[in-house]
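From: lab user (bench 3)
To: helpdesk
Subject: output format question, protein + zinc ion

Hello, I'm new to running complex predictions and I'm not sure whether the block I got back is the full result or only part of it. Here's what I submitted:
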Amino acid sequence: VAEGEATCFFHPQKRAQVPCDACGRFLCALCDCEFGDQHLCPACLESGARKRHIQVLEPSRTRWDQIAWALVILPLVLCGLLLPLTSLIVLGLVVWRRSEPGSLLDNSALSLKIAAGVAAVELVASTALWVFLLTGRFT
Ligand SMILES: [Zn+2]
Ligand SMILES: [Zn+2]
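Helpdesk reply: Thanks, we reran it on our side. This is the complete output you should expect:
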């Protein structure tokens, strides 16, 4: 190993190739366990396999309320005619997430409910708009 080069956490004599995606330790080619598109050290691979959560190692939970709000707001900015579709997706999302109790933080659950309320209003308003557009065009 040349001076100044990062070395493997487990083999100080070997040059590091990649850091572990879970713990950040430097790994040599021998210690680098590729798991899907992740690089894991043997320790993390083992603990991940034990806990069966290798696929969800990222610490942040998916914020469904943020996705819902994006679907509520983006069509207003981009194309209002998409609203019947996106508001239905939001309502479906809310119903789907509600069937998994305890999976949401309290404030995001509330935020999701508000998003659902706005989506419901959008659904009614945009459906009325569509009916107006279609009947105006075809009569
Ligand atoms: Zn690791
Ligand atoms: Zn190594």
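A quick orientation on your result: The first helix runs from residue 42 to 51. Let us know if anything else is unclear.
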